[in-house]
Amino acid sequence: MGVEAHATNERVTGRKWTVRLDPVGRGRADVRVSCSRPACAAQVLPSAAAGRTAAIGHLKAHLRAGPAPRPSAQCACRAEECHTHIRPAGPRERPVPWRCGGAVVLAVVTDREGRWWQVMECCSRCAAAHPTAKVVATAPAAEAPARSDGFRADAAAPATPGGTTTLGGPAATTPTFSAAGPHFSHSATATAAGTAVPQQASAPRSDHRSDPRSAPRSARPPRRRPPRGRIAQRLVPHDLRPVALRDELTELGELFRAYQARTEPDLALLAELHARKAEAFHAWAEATADTGLRLDARRAEQAAATARLQHLHRIGQAPDGEGPAVARLLTAPAQWNHARSVLAHVAENAPLPGAEARLLVVMVTLRTAQSGVGNLVGQDVKGLPLPDPEQLVGQLVESGWLGISGTVEELIASRPENPTQITVPSLTPDEDNPGPFTFGRKLRPKLSGWAQRVVGEKKLRKGKTEAAVRLLALALATGSDGEGRLGPGGEGIGVDTLSSWCAVDPGDLPALVDRLTAADWLAEAEVTDTLLTGRLTERVLPLGCPLT
């Protein structure tokens, strides 16, 4: 009696490599793109956006040039004992061994912040267990083990006249990509959800009587479970009852994933999804007595309220629905008071006369307000309406008010990737003098960004308004009430106060007001011998710091 030899069914560990995006150093804008494959050299890019583009392009090049996933490969993540294969059981659950299944795929896993991309060869079930995995290629069905009598399990092989089949099966299918590289999308949901690719049927043996095991069996309908849904990194159980709750959770998971693939946000839709999630998770917690689900439901309620409030602010409607709301750049009364304190300090301690010097001192003060030290580049100075910025910076340095690391010419020529360090000794705190300002380190860039938005506002910039006009815009932004009316209670602002702040004569103030009116900053403006009355237009209300 002949002995039938079976081929060894050895499985190789799946391939895996990672493309990373890391900062080059603290305080620097350039980033390093590295690949774990030994033949790839690291690249240094000037910005995170450029680095992310290069990293994705590098990853796509590997996917286009690399071989297809191998049907005989075992999961790459299994070798590292990932959480999916360890499957720690909860306090009320019995440990269930994880069983890999489905076709072998090539999946791309990434973090939500876009700092690394990992390609791994694994089964479709493991790919579906990773929340961010996208399947880019699938291996063909594995062949049956070879037998000693020369037959191959390949139904597609043509038969020969001698009653045998031709040796050799179909070659592995290589994934095809477009010229722009693989498309990371949700199109591979069938594979990612763990559905196995059906294997090819085995060819019949030449003699059914020689082996009774090969006799045909009656066809049985395969038992198929419904696909398991996934929401918030949780798998929806097959046996969850009521069925309507299971379907709702599955549908919500699909809707959230579709929302993440949108190119533009829809906060109203997001608020509705979070509200539905909160209601569904409350019902799920009642059905399973799971405390974690109750906590997730409360977090979903908070997320729904936040998204709803952001939507109302975006469309300009008050949360109570009674009137319009203004989404201001500086949101709190304390921030508004700090902005006024900076402008008042500059008005009292400006080292040089003139509107141009006053404007430059305001911007430099906001760059160094918290510690007396900051960074400045040439564009920060050249972007201001200054007739001779190099000479003005030199005068501030000669007066001792400003210190720079290098020459004035180097500061004017400096770029964002290599800024010039500046110091203002009068703002540097010490043991005896904590400095003129009391706000913290996080608020300083907000105040600086606010002043930059006001001074560089589009219509002021396109109108080529001079420094005095932009100083007046700063003064009016901090001197109006919540509805934009100038002065406390809309009573107006003193002409002498404004002319002193703008460093111009009182007689020149009406011309500055006309320039702001033409730039759609002011409406109903009227200048008398003592007061300026009027209101800010609705267009610039978000830049205002209302009087409280």
From TrEMBL:
Where composition is biased (Basic and acidic residues), the residues are 205-214
Region named Disordered: 153-230
Q: Where is the composition biased (Low complexity)?
A: 153-176
- Specify the superkingdom: Bacteria
**Protein name (record):** Uncharacterized protein
